[in-house]
Design brief:
Blueprint (H helix, E strand, L loop, with lengths): L13 H17 L4 H5 L6 H14 L2 H8 L4 H7 L14 H8 L5 H14 L3 H11 L4 H8 L4 H7 L9 H10 L2 H9 L4 H9 L1 H7 L3 H4 L1 H11 L10 H10 L1 H6 L1 H8 L2 H7 L2 H13 L9 H8 L4 H14 L39 H29 L4 H9 L4 H14 L3 H15 L3 H12 L6 H15 L6 H10 L15 H14 L4 H9 L11 H18 L4 H18 L7 H13 L1 H13 L8 H5 L5 H10 L7 H10 L4 H10 L5 H15 L5 H14 L4 H10 L5 H9 L10 H4 L1 H4 L1 H9 L3 H11 L6 H10 L5 H11 L1 H12 L5 H13 L6 H7 L10 H11 L3 H13 L6 H13 L11 H9 L4 H24 L4 H13 L4 H4 L7 H13 L8 H23 L1 H5 L1 H4 L2 H24 L4 H14 L5 H17 L6 H9 L6 H12 L5 H7 L3
């Protein structure tokens, strides 16, 4: 027993101590020591417990491992989870035991840690299925992690049930296991709207997630691609994917060649995989596809054409792009093309009510602002259009390229050579040379011919010759030219610095070509080297062969290494360039050793100059160990400190590192933890840090925020002395309050862990109590919540803990918080309502809206106004309550608008109070009758005649009297017209019309009509009377349809499809009947007067696909109900509302109308001309 406890770890570094601990465990196991032999031995340091846990892991002692999983210290929990053999114990690793027995006794971070451990390590399909089925109802995000490890049969059974919940990531994971999942998912897009809506929000991500299916089941993947690939949103396939498809599934490509080539595959890779004849045939087939003319250009198919022999290439290009000898063209796609699933109709519906807004005194100002904004937008678009047009203008060089694009080099050389002699412009001659360079194709014979022509123009201005040389180097790899041709190039490039001398015009590419040629030859002239180093390049932009790259890499490395022996700034520049070369050419790390030696020497002379080099080497993971001390001067993050702890402890003993730890706060938690666990209290490095931090805290100029950051690492570095130091601070004068509070707040960082029960909550402080409470065990939560909720300082913690607990005492905790901290209770409740519609919590919180003073609490006031967060069950009462307590006019207007939408669910007394309040508001800024729509809807929600009379007596009659008084006041006529317009429009209230319990809507309209007759003559205001009558007819049509088709209106989906058609047809028949009565009462031409209002009335229904269906049904109903020439009204309506209907429906209606002899004349006159 004695050799194993207490454990004394030996070694100079963290790595050595790790290995020593492992050797102790191994020796104990081999000697036959059991956990029971060492368990009772007192633990003087964390290493003692680590030794016991590792021994238990090694010996498979499950009981001891489970006890450590329940420990408060996450160090021991994490260590215990090294026991992966625990997964074989079904009595332990099953969800029932974990949730009912083990997890309730573990601290919450340990539960999260073990859940993650299960997800990472559990692999057995049967166990994974057990975990998935247990958690899928209440913790789907956790359960889905296990589904991909279940059997394929179970996956295929389960996936159709959870398609709408699958994220792109988990779809990819499941497809990797079972490719059929991809087919199931994409097949569901045609039938399941919720799945389709999720897919369309992240279309590219979902499609990318099934690319893993390509090699496991290519037919499924290509079927999906041919159906759902989006031309506009998706990128072409990668070269690897293209290569695989062409090699293994070439028939799929050839069957739909135009689709794959024009939109899907990587064309250069496709060209490389096809034979020359196949490339030629592909180009011809694409050329014949007239529907691809917007895409089919030379640039698009250039990789395919370049596969042809150069001698045949020019003739083929001429045949395809000039002569157009391609055979018979195809006008339409010969097969269905892929497209995204059709977006679900999210437009407004005919049965949706219009959302009215109350009248305000600021509407005119807003309208003017909107007008100015629109004018500004138009100006912006005009400017954009102008820029776009200017960008499409081609330069002279582009036009010359286009002219000779399909002409071979020999003919181009002949034609352009003649133009050179007759061209007076130097820029034009430059363009001619550049076109000829592009036509050479990099062939030596063509370049030689071009240089012979250039020799006759060696007197060209230097900038013209420079442009030609630059283009030759880029396009023709001139460093490979024969010696005689190379000499022609040097002669043509005189004065351009190709000999290492000063250049009369910028021509770095020419010098680069000289350097490449000389490096490949094995020798570089000193003058060339000096000129090159002054304008260094890694030469990565040039197309070098493999053997050329190797020789260039060695040559550049030698050049730069030789030049690095100079003053620090210049040496650093050369070393930086050398690192560029190492990165570009992938030079092996071992060959970089000389560079590291140079950098270490340079660091001694000038640290700031060498800093960028050290950072580059560190990011490239080169020489980290050799340059560890140098890197620490510039990189003092936690990773660097841990690296030093593993390799060189002396490098850590510096004031700079102490300063970084003191400023870092949480940034160095892992480093401090490792130090405290593996190094004892009296060792040199912990003592150094502890002493330095205490001195910093004790210094007079230490600020409060710095003390808090410094206390965090100090608490852990104090080891067993933490409580002693806290007692010392408690006994000192009040100026130590900041340090005292900081130490208490970080008490959870101490090791050994302090006992909150022994300390007492008063001594520990709120922060320590909150930290302990939020990580407490599930079996302790109820007691914690009860105790925390009793104190004003901790009630916020009680709320947070209660909301995290399954089945926690939420109502009791909110009740306590409402008494002790009402503002906190409001804040938390608003966040709570984003996820839960708990009426009990609302009843507790509701009184606080009236009792809490919101005037000075801006943040709370803004949160209260986020009405979209409030669940619908609470929203009506919430908006009404907030309306009564708000003093801001604009806020009240927003709440009124929201209440008008929620009106059927608002208490009648509440609405009447608000409406009465609106009548009684006085003052100069008060808007008269601000919201007629709300009053009309309030009246429409009457349930019987008695209720209607009561509402009219209390609100309705008063409203009509006020509106009449506005009519009589000459200064308020415009106000009257606006209020009257909203009053008449708001009589149409679908929420009441479609609910049979509101049976007196027609009586409301009759009363309004009766009142209007006493105020406005029918002859002068005929359109207003017609609009009210149309609303009455619409109401009758709705109720008649509900009576005839109760099963349709009982089904929400059918009501919004079949119900629209039914209501529209009956409405049309009612209109025809009323028009017939009007013609009998008045005169025939009243049809034209009536039609004008009807057209406007139909246009007020919400726009969308349902309005088109409704309009079609209305017109058919009018045709069915009208007689003789009265049917011409349908022709007028179709003429004026034709844009609401699609072409097929419009043609069908025109065909129906033209069959009627009474309507034929009107159809030709109104629709066919």
């Amino acid at each position: 027993m004695a050799p194993h406890s207490p454990v004394m770890l030996l070694g100079d570094t963290l790595g050595q101590r790790h290995r020593h601990l492992n050797s102790l465990v191994r020796a104990a196991r081999e000697s036959g020591t059991t956990v029971q032999d060492v368990e009772a031995v007192p633990e003087q340091a964390p290493a003692d417990r680590l030794f016991k846990v590792d021994l238990a892991v090694s010996l498979g002692d499950a009981d001891y491992i489970l006890r450590n999983l329940k420990h408060d210290d996450m160090l021991f929990v994490s260590r215990a989870l090294k026991a992966r053999w625990l997964l074989d114990r079904h009595d332990v690793i099953n969800p029932q035991y974990l949730e009912d027995t083990l997890f309730p006794e573990m601290v919450s971070p340990a539960v999260s840690k073990m859940r993650h451990w299960l997800y990472i390590n559990l692999r057995e399909p049967a166990k994974c299925q057990e975990f998935y089925e247990y958690y899928k109802q209440n913790s789907f995000e956790f359960a889905i992690k296990f589904l991909s490890r279940c059997s394929n049969r179970f996956i295929l059974e389960e996936v159709p049930k959870i398609l709408a919940k699958l994220s792109p990531h988990y779809l990819k994971v499941l497809c990797e296991k079972c490719s059929t999942v991809a087919k199931i998912y994409f097949d569901s897009l045609a039938t399941q709207d919720d799945v389709k809506n999720c897919y369309l929000k992240q279309e590219q991500a979902y499609y990318n997630s099934i690319k893993c299916v390509l090699k496991s089941d290519a037919d499924v993947f290509l079927d999906i691609t041919e159906k759902y690939f989006s031309f506009d949103k998706f990128k072409r396939f990668s070269p690897l994917a293209t290569d695989y498809i062409v090699r293994c599934h070439k028939s799929r490509v050839t069957n739909k060649l135009e689709l794959y080539v024009a939109h899907i595959l990587h064309i250069p890779t496709l060209a490389a995989r096809l034979s020359v004849d196949e490339c030629q045939e592909v180009v011809l087939q694409l050329a014949r596809a007239s529907y691809l003319q917007h895409w089919f250009q030379y640039k698009a198919v250039e990789p395919l054409i370049k596969r042809l022999h150069p001698q045949k290439r020019a003739a083929f290009k001429k045949r395809v792009f000039v002569v157009k000898d391609i055979g018979e063209c195809v006008q339409e796609w010969p097969y269905l093309t892929p497209q995204s699933p059709q977006q679900s109709d999210t437009s407004s519906h005919v049965f949706d009510d219009v959302h009215y807004a109350p009248f305000t005194s600021e509407q005119f100002t807003c309208r003017r602002m909107t007008k100015h904004m629109k004018m500004g937008e138009k100006k912006g678009y005009m400017a954009w259009d102008i820029v776009t047009i200017e960008g499409n203008i081609k330069s002279d060089l582009q036009l010359l390229f286009e002219e000779f694009r399909f002409i071979g080099f020999d003919r181009a050389l002949h034609d352009l050579g003649q133009r050179l002699r007759s061209t007076g412009s130097a820029e034009r001659r430059r363009d001619i040379f550049l076109v000829l360079v592009s036509k050479t194709g990099g062939r030596s014979d063509a370049v030689s011919a071009l240089l012979q022509l250039a020799a006759r123009h060696s007197n060209e201005p230097v900038h013209i010759r420079g442009a030609v040389v630059r283009s030759l180097v880029k396009r023709a790899a001139v460093w490979r030219l024969p010696a005689d041709v190379w000499q022609h190039l040097l002669d043509f490039g005189r004065g351009l610095g190709l000999d290492g001398g000063p250049s009369e015009a910028a021509c770095y590419e020419g010098l680069h070509a000289v350097v490449i040629r000389q490096l490949l030859a094995g020798e570089c002239e000193p003058t060339i080297v000096n000129a090159f180093l002054n304008n260094f390049s890694s030469l990565k932009e040039y197309s070098l062969k493999v053997d050329e790259r190797l020789r260039i890499a060695v040559g550049l490395q030698n050049l730069l290494a030789a030049a690095a022996d100079s003053e620090p700034a210049k040496a650093a520049e050369r070393l930086n360039q050398l690192l560029d070369v190492i990165e570009v050419y992938g030079i092996h790390v071992q060959t970089v050793a000389p560079v590291i030696g140079i950098i270490k020497g340079l660091a001694l002379s000038d640290e700031e100059v060498v800093r960028p080099l050290l950072e580059r080497l560190y990011k490239a993971k080169i020489g980290r160990q050799e340059l560890l001390r140098e890197n620490l001067k510039f990189r003092c993050d936690e990773a660097a400190l841990l690296n030093a702890l593993r390799h060189d402890l002396l490098a850590l003993e510096s004031k700079q590192i102490v300063d970084e730890i003191a400023r870092g706060g949480k940034k160095f938690d892992r480093f401090i933890s490792k130090l405290v666990v593996y190094f004892t209290q009296n060792e040199q490095l912990p003592m150094y840090f502890r002493t330095a931090l205490r001195e910093k805290i004790a210094s007079e100029d230490s600020e409060k925020r710095n003390i808090i950051k410094q206390a965090r690492p100090l608490v852990r570095l104090l080891y067993q002395d933490f409580e002693n130091m806290l007692s010392e601070v408690d006994a000192t004068e009040k100026k130590k309050d900041v340090l005292r509070a900081a130490l208490k707040a970080c008490a959870h960082r101490a090791r050994p862990i302090v006992s909150l029960a022994e300390w007492g909550w008063s001594r520990a402080g709120v922060k320590a109590v909150a930290t302990r409470a939020m990580r407490c065990r599930e079996i302790e939560r109820a007691e914690f919540i009860r105790t925390l909720a009793m104190e004003r300082r901790t009630v916020r913690v009680a709320l947070a803990l209660s909301l995290r607990s399954k089945g926690g005492p939420v109502l009791d905790t909110f009740a306590s918080a409402a008494k002790l901290r009402p503002v906190v209770a409001l804040h938390v409740a608003l966040r709570y309502f984003r996820h839960y519609a708990d009426l009990g919590v609302w009843e507790i919180i509701k009184p606080l809206l009236t009792s809490v003073d919101l005037s000075s609490k801006t943040r709370l006031r803004n949160s209260l106004l986020r009405i979209q967060w409030i669940p619908y069950a609470i929203k009506p009462d919430y908006c009404a309550t907030l309306y009564f307590v708000s003093n801001n006019i604009s806020i009240r207007e927003d709440l009124l608008r929201e209440l008008c939408v929620l009106l059927p669910d608002v208490e009648v007394d509440t609405i009447e109070t608000i409406l009465t309040w609106l009548f009684e508001m006085k003052g100069e800024d008060v808007v008269p009758l601000p919201f007629p729509a709300m009053i009309m809807r309030y009246l429409n929600l009457s349930k019987n005649d008695e209720d209607l009379e009561r509402r009219f007596t209390k609100i309705g009659n008063r409203f009509l009297e006020c509106l009449s008084s506005l009519r009589c006041d000459n200064t308020s006529k415009k106000v009257f017209e606006k209020r009257l317009h909203q009053t008449i429009d708001s009589l149409k209230y679908n929420a009441a019309f479609l609910d049979s319990k509101y049976s007196v809507c027609l009586s409301v309209m009759e009363k309004i009509l009766t009142w209007l007759q006493t105020l406005l003559p029918k002859e002068e205001y005929f359109s207003k009377y017609v609009k009210i009558h149309l609303t009455m007819l619409y109401f009758k049509a709705v109720r008649q349809s509900m009576k005839q088709l109760p099963e349709v209106f009982a089904d929400p989906k059918r009501k919004r499809t079949e119900g629209v058609e039914a209501v529209g047809f009956v409405f049309g028949r009612y209109i025809a009947k009323e028009v017939s009565d009007l013609v009998t009462t008045y005169f025939d031409s009243i049809i034209e007067l009536y039609t004008g209002t009807l057209v406007d009335y139909l246009g007020e229904f919400p726009d969308g696909s349902s309005r088109a269906k409704f309009m079609e049904s209305v017109l058919k109903g009018m045709l069915a109900g009208a007689e003789g020439t009265q049917r011409r009204m349908a022709v007028y309506v179709l003429r004026d509302r034709s844009y609401d209907l699609n072409n097929e429906v419009r043609k069908e209606l025109e065909h129906l109308m033209i069959q009627d002899k009474y309507m034929e004349f009107f159809v030709h006159a109104e629709l066919c001309n």
